[in-house]
Amino acid sequence: MCEKVCKSVAKCVKSLYILRMFGFNTPSIDSKGRIAIPARYRIDFKTQNQNEIVITKDPQYPSLKLYHHSEWQRISTKLQSLQGLDPIVRNLQWTILGNASVCEFDPTGRMHVLIPSDLKEYANILDKNRICLVGMGNKFEIWDLENWEMRQTGGVLATEILEVVLPESVKDMSF
Length: 175
Fold this sequence. Notes:
Shape: globular
Number of domains: 1
CATH class: Alpha Beta
Largest sheet: 6 strands, antiparallel
Order of helices and strands: HEEHEEHHEEHEEHH
CATH architecture: 3-Layer(aba) Sandwich
Radius of gyration: 18 Å
Structural class: alpha+beta
CATH topology: Chemotaxis protein chec
CATH superfamily: Transcriptional regulator MraZ domain
């Protein structure tokens, strides 16, 4: 009886565990256009049984967002529920949902993630050997190293590209 309770509690605790991604990494892109998720995050993906990630465009910057499957489910469901007749909301839906690419990987392996060529082009990482993988808690941002440095040091990308007032329905969302 005690063993069953312990297994049940362990399963419950595991389901409450939240995959968090923090930190700055500069992984290389291999000859096939893939990056490997850094080793320190692999155990979390494995523990959470996450074997899918979603990569999509960032609506504000020439960078990409990388979400684990359960976080993507939350964000995409909320985006889909917004009023699509609002042109700003619709543009966000097109950018984020319309450009999403699902990538499966083996969480016990090297966790290679293939970035589609159209997304690499958008983020200016086509012929780059090194990129930036920036952990933002519930997601990673993927940046071209030069664009990231401009963003951090006050270059052209330091100002917000999104020059419109967001609708109230979008202000509470985290992309």
